[in-house]
């Protein structure tokens, strides 16, 4: 297992997700979402989205949750809603994003590659039976959930 100092790499990633530290630039956000940088600047001035700026206060960086917000606002705009209504709908949806972020940070305990196009995601023990754990197998067939007895792991 790869480790950086005293923190294992997977724990570092989980912490970055939990603390909302994964960020992308404005130009990258525009490219990924299809929303122009001028529109993103406008939305930021209106307080609909928020960024952090680098030390020189020039470049804007957006969290992954903000990226999902931009996708959602754009989706509702494309459906014919006004910007105000699209933002309102996004604010209600944002609570689900925060729940999902917490799920990722709390429940993904390990990810391992089983083959070139197949992996396993450990989701931890069952609440009502801590002797068993849930895991997902992800491959070309999709994602399937399974349950198995917990065994002592050597990471």
UniProtKB/TrEMBL annotation:
Domain HTH merR-type: 23-47
InterPro entries linked: DNA-bd_dom_put_sf (IPR009061), MerR-type_HTH_dom (IPR000551)
Pfam families assigned to the protein according to its UniProt record, in alphabetical order: MerR_1
Descriptive protein name: MerR family transcriptional regulator
